[in-house]
Design goal:
heterotetramer, A: 85 residues, 5-stranded mixed sheet, globular, B: 151 residues, 4-stranded mixed sheet, 3 helices
């Protein structure tokens, strides 16, 4: 097994307001997926429990499936429903 | 050469038009998204756009390249403004020029529809009564872009 | 108020845009028809547009009113230029603004398609080799407008 | 029966070049139709025979059916295939 992975997690718009922060460093065991990251965040309690259980997620700026395995140093953004245009 | 940008300054339609066009083009189409004074029956005084800027720049470029390939043109400019906007100000500008008009309409519509689906931009409306609210948007689909397994 | 005109002077896109737009509008679409440098494989140096001016003014106004009614807007401007035009010059400009974008795209496309079918305007192309030719157009249909029995 | 009708006939673009004129006054018997006008023009011979037998026609600036009956003073335009835009 490989060592733990360190994930730079980003929050925007309503998620950022909800959590009171735009960025968190999260450590996860090797092999952790996008889903595992979201679960880890929600298990922190408080405002984190209000995060959706399957938010849209971008890994290194690409929309990514919840089953994708994360790598050390990945930048993972939780993306609220978008409203550009 | 196509052009895309996430900008903070006011968008000037004439300047956007100057970015495109070539002697072989018979059609130019400029779409402007404008802040309007109402939303779902509420009176709107202004809006604030936030973005995940590095990703938005990449996604906007991807969308434009997809449209450009389909329309066989490299004369597309697309800009999205972020920050505080008043009613009547331009939030998005999409200019396309092509030899024939059908391709220009198709490319223009494709780009604005994909922006609404995929561009990581969020809009908070400021209502006349002083309240503010994030506009309920659309959940982007992981399938809307090439998937990576993150490894 | 909608605006239509048959003009002899150069068309300024920014000025056309200034004719439309209102606080309730979230979408503006500007179509520009531009003289291109080729036609059916021949190199074009310029074109001359002729018209049956009084009728063209009436038909253009009719087309715009039809589109405006369908899109529930009175913020449409459509101009067609006649006379001698060089490559790159704007022959037609159609600007539409509406609360939502779908109506703007539909109205814009309707107007340019109907112009191509019904507007009594003819185009003579001047080729690089000095030859000139009337562009083969489309026969307007008597059914394309309300029929009268002439009596 | 009513008296003859006097029609102001207009030619544009390729038709105008073909005929060397943009306008002709044409007298027709009462009850004459758009078709009758076109036939009368074509029967003049020369370049007129090159006019199509069923051109698009506008009567008083409205596209009109070939069977429409003309009235005294009508302005009738023979409309070559259009190429605006």
């Amino acid at each position: 097994m490989y060592g733990p992975v360190e994930i730079r997690t980003l929050f925007f718009a309503s998620y950022k307001e909800l959590l009171g922060t735009g960025e968190l460093q999260v450590d996860l065991p090797a092999g952790a997926t996008v889903s595992d990251l979201v679960s880890a965040l929600r298990s922190r309690g408080g405002a984190f429990t209000v995060l959706p259980s399957t938010p849209a997620v971008a890994v290194n700026m690409t929309y990514t499936d919840p089953a994708a395995v994360l790598s050390d140093g990945d930048e993972v953004a939780l993306i609220p429903p978008v409203a550009g245009g | 050469m196509n052009f895309t940008a996430i900008v903070r300054e006011a968008i000037d339609p004439a300047q956007v038009l100057s970015l495109i066009g070539a002697d072989q083009d018979g059609a130019t189409l400029l779409f402007l998204g404008v802040v309007r004074d109402h939303s779902d029956g509420r009176s709107v005084g202004g809006v604030r756009y936030e973005t995940y800027e590095e990703m938005a720049a990449q996604v906007l470029s991807d969308i434009v390249e997809e449209a450009a390939e389909a329309a066989d043109t490299d004369r597309i400019a697309a800009l999205h403004r972020i920050g505080e906007l008043e009613v009547g100000e331009v939030s998005v500008a999409i200019a396309v020029s092509t030899p024939h008009r059908a391709e220009a309409y198709e490319a223009s519509r494709y780009i604005i529809e994909e922006i609404k689906k995929r561009l990581p931009v969020w809009k908070k409306e400021r209502y006349s009564d002083g309240a503010e609210e994030w506009v309920e948007g659309r959940a982007p689909d992981a399938a809307s872009a090439p998937q990576t397994d993150g490894s």
